[in-house]
Amino acid sequence: MELTLLGTGAPLGLPRPDCPCAVCALSRGPRVRAATALLVDGALLLDLTPGAALAAARSGHSLVGVRQVLLTHPHDGPAVEVPAGLPNAGRVPDGRELTLISGHRVRAVPMDSPGTGYEVTSADGETLLYLPPGGSPAGLADDHRAPYDMVVADVTGRPDALARLRATGAVGPATDVIAVHLDHDVPTGAELDRRLAAAGARAVPDGTTLYVGEYHEVPDVPRRTLVTGGARSGKSVEAERRLEAFPEVLYVATGGSREGDPEWAERVGLHRERRPGSWRTAETCDLVPLLEEDGPALLVDCLSLWLTDAMDRVDAWDDESWATGGQDALRKRTAELVAAVRATRRTVVAVTNEVGSGVVPATAAGRRFRDELGRLNAAFADACEEVLLVVAGQALVLRG
What we know:
Blueprint: E1 2-7, H1 22-26, E2 37-40, E3 44-46, H2 52-58, E4 68-70, E5 89-90, E6 97-99, E7 105-110, E8 116-121, E9 127-130, E10 150-153, H3 159-167, E11 176-179, H4 190-198, E12 209-211, E13 224-229, H5 235-243, E14 249-253, H6 262-274, E15 280-283, H7 287-292, E16 297-301, H8 303-313, H9 319-343, E17 348-353, H10 364-382, E18 386-391, E19 394-399
Parallel strand pairs: 3-4, 4-5, 9-10, 10-11, 13-17, 13-18, 14-15, 14-16, 16-17
Antiparallel strand pairs: 1-2, 1-12, 2-3, 6-7, 7-8, 8-9, 18-19
Helix pairs in contact: 8-10, 9-10
């Protein structure tokens, strides 16, 4: 099944008309994206957008052979002029199936928001799922019969939709996931590619022709990632973003609860509000058993608080205790943690604080914590496939 993406942008396109934002300013040349529209085997057009005939011509195709035009979502603004010779556009009721003269079977998939998704099966059996902007399937069975060959969806706007598809088996390890409906709320260029790769997806320029069912190397999602940065740098948001397309995540909070501390309670509340409702939370510093057992992806936030607890347990803050066994005991605990990370089979994203770039602590205990956290960060990073440094909300790739 041949699929040509006539456009890959949000309904208003990218750049948006008269928008002064930085992403729109950078969306020039190959980064310009028209509203998303898909041409399937020259016979089926999914979403009719302004300039569809010209977009098809630029990609070396024609709309002359189109026998069916289907819409996925309500279109705002002035009516789109239908090119001469095209059939009228329409939407299929949820759950209904069409069989086209071209041999394609199209089934309407209900969404959790206004719009319709379409499951397209070619005469040769290749399967494609196309979802509207801001939409997630509401009608997939928990035991989906087989993974789709390709999914084209709003990955940046609805990563939870991808998580849902993975949970039901509709997206498997070999499914080619293509991000469309791309808008100006996500950085463009290399940063977009990095974020999509973390979700196991990719973006392609307007006019690209893909072949559904043809082998394509799916982006390799790193199994172990360390996210470091200064206070309020955005490192926790970056870590959470990397797992938002996963069907299950265990959020490991190493800070615990602090009675009588309203500021800490507010921080914890903000973190919980950001996380998807399907994530589970464990408040513990016993990370080694979690890393050694099988289970869903782990998000550990953070190693700095884990080290604080580890130093408490061996009384490492006291100079005499440190010199008479505390140092050896702490190094043993950190070595056990790093060994567990190196051997784990789970997907792990860990957050830590970057230290040593600011004011030198005034106390020996403060300097000890700074030094030990620096050593832990270096050893933990050495066991990870990917390491990110977050500065002012921007993620810099140090490894991976």
